[in-house]
Amino acid sequence: MSWWNSSRAVYGAELRAGAQCLVDHGWPVVPGTWWQGGAWRGIPAEPVGGLTIDLSRAAGWDSVPAVSGGVSSATCDSSQVSLWWSRSPYSVLLATGSTLDVVEMPAYLGRRVASTLRRVGVVAALAATPSGRWWLPVTPGSALYPELAAHTEVVVHGPGSWVIAPPSEMEDGLVHWRVPPSASGWRLPESELVQSAVAEALRWSATEGDEWPVTQRPADVIVGSRAY
Question: What is the average pLDDT score of the chain?
Fold first, then answer.
């Protein structure tokens, strides 16, 4: 086995372990397309959730479910997860809307939100993507704050959506935990609290004039649930 293939095999084992860790704590996952050789691999033969673009040529777009059932196939079944990730180095997609939701934002807001939560004594899991997007898993079922509705850079992922989770790879690098879920005992912060912190960060930015230091995801990618 070549060094490159050996390295990919080790990385595949890390992906499988990452997925298993999530499901062991009741966080549902589904296998996603993976980044390799300058393109997304494992794109399903049938459209998923209205997907019509060619992700193999769409640099900068993130992973989509790589199974025919789409995100509805997400599970916490350890055996199924082991079977999926024994076949291919799938990205780990965390499904939202049941056990948890996810609040996603650009990194500059994420830093301020994390600081606000620390000030009130809340430890929350926090993931970062190489494209400059940060996300926090939160309690499910809360609608997007009206104050945030006009800010397309802030997304609440609920039913029918997902986020790409560590240690998955994207075009520019690996998704990683800035604060691992174990640091909070896998407890979820209240969505309302996190959204309030995001709103506060946006107000601060409006008055202090934060610059946008990272690449934005196209604003029309997600509105509530995935809609390409």
Answer: 85
- Nearest-5° angle of CA 205, CA 208, CA 211? 65
d(CA 61, CA 63): 7
- The pair phi, psi for residue 122, each rounded to 5°, is -105, 120
- Flag whether pLDDT at 206 surpasses 90: no
The whole-angstrom distance between residue 183's C-alpha and the CA centroid of its chain comes to 18
Range of the domain at 198: 3-226
Q: What is the mean pLDDT of residues 1-14?
A: 67
From the number of C-beta atoms within 10 Å of its C-beta (0-12, 13-18, 19+), residue 133 rates as buried
Q: What is the pTM of this model?
A: 0.85
What is the b/e burial string over 183-208, where b = at least 16 CB atoms within 10 angstroms of the residue's CB? ebebebbebebbbbbbbebbeeeeee
Instruction: Let me know the angle formed at the C-alpha of 81 by 77 and 85, rounded to the nearest 5 degrees.
Output: 175
- Count of the separate structural domains present in the chain: 1
Structure-model confidence comparison of residues 6 and 65, the more confident one? 65
